[in-house]
Write a structure and sequence with these properties.
This protein is of the alpha/beta class and 360 residues long. The protein is built from 14 helices and 13 strands.
């Protein structure tokens, strides 16, 4: 058993989502959204290096020492897979491990809105799942791919850094490719994927200009492309894609995006009552007014499209938050902290709720 396994097992046993280890600090875990120590002993530089090196192939360890950053997946058979990120900070080496559930959770188990299933039945276009780090984007995408795999016959290529969820063979053919292991970059994998006859491409993260450009090209060529971004609502997602390009190219990109944007699912995680976390969503689906809104640059009008299309399954993030407060799933303070229009939630707060805002 690797030395780090005992810490990962302890974190999982507490119901935690992330293990944080760093030189000069005790091991810590994120449990129900809060970071807490899971040991008293401060980690030394020697212990840290020994623990990390033990679970990495020699070639990738050499790469980490040179580049000072490394993403990888690590598995404890029978327990779980973990997405690890190794880094250097002021005091030396550090790492964060996030648990990837061994079992891919279904739409029903995650409580995902039925409207998201509509996106799984599309034949082409760009679907973006967005949210801050740790908001469950990968888990939602895994449920979507699993739904397709269970119900439809498709050729699916996933490009991730690292591979998180490994999908079993069902109705679809799924090819998992890991950046750094099976391909050099997201962009090179996307270029290759165009020649591999895919129906669906999953791009783990659209973080670079070339990756975004190629994802748009694939969606425009008749593939269904799923990607992720770190934005927290639909209008900001459209802005982020367009603003990734030089100003001289943005008109052309607006036209391209208008022609292929098929949906946006923005997701936030909130603390549940009495414990645990739940996801809330903003959902934008295809609409007759959407293409012209994107093409003309009137991005602010996307909110009105969503607001007026509730019967089709579209919903604003603030509406989702309000619904979760009303049904007793989350506290008003939690919704207030996450909401765009805080004034709508202020009357629901209890006296003293905001006194501890800084510690939330």
């Amino acid at each position: 058993m690797a030395e780090i396994d005992s810490l990962l097992r302890k974190m999982v046993g507490l119901g935690g989502s992330d293990l944080h280890i760093a030189v000069g600090l005790p091991p810590k875990a994120r449990v129900s959204g809060s970071i807490q120590p899971i040991g008293d002993k401060l980690l030394t530089a020697e212990e840290m290096s020994r623990m990390l090196k033990e679970i990495v192939p020699e070639r990738r360890w050499t790469d980490f020492l040179a580049r000072r950053d490394l993403d990888l997946a690590y598995e404890i058979p029978g327990l779980a897979r973990f997405r690890g990120n190794f880094l250097y900070n002021h005091w030396g080496q550090a790492a964060v491990f996030r648990e990837i559930p061994a079992k891919i959770l279904s739409f029903e188990q995650l409580g995902l809105p039925e409207a998201i299933k509509k996106l799984c039945h599309l034949n082409e276009g760009l679907v973006v799942v967005t949210g801050p780090t740790g908001s469950g984007k990968s888990t939602t995408l895994a449920a979507m791919i699993d739904y397709i795999n269970t119900n439809l016959s498709r050729h699916i290529i996933t490009i991730e850094d690292p591979i998180e969820f490994v999908h079993p063979v069902k109705k679809s053919v799924i090819v998992h490719r890991e950046v750094g292991e099976h391909t050099e970059t997201f962009a090179s994998a996307l270029k290759g994927a165009m020649r591999h006859d895919p129906d669906i491409l999953l791009v783990g993260e659209m973080r670079e200009l070339e990756t975004i450009k190629l994802a748009l090209s694939c969606a425009s060529m008749g593939m269904l492309v799923f990607g992720t971004l770190h934005t927290n609502n639909a209008p900001k997602t459209v802005d982020r894609i367009i603003n990734a390009f030089p100003s001289d190219d943005q008109n052309q990109v607006r036209v391209m995006l208008a022609g292929c944007l098929a949906g946006i699912v923005a997701q936030l995680l909130c603390r549940k009552i009495p414990k645990g976390r739940c996801a809330v969503h903003e959902i934008l689906l295809q609409h007759e007014a959407l293409a012209n809104t994107v093409r003309s640059g009137q991005i602010a009008n996307i909110r009105a499209i969503i607001e007026g299309s509730g019967s089709e399954g579209m919903v604003l993030m603030d509406t989702s938050l309000m619904n979760r407060v009303k049904d007793g799933t989350i506290e008003a303070k939690e919704a207030y902290m996450k909401a765009s229009n805080k004034a709508a939630f202020a009357p629901l707060l209890k006296p003293g709720d905001l006194d501890s805002e800084g510690s939330h």
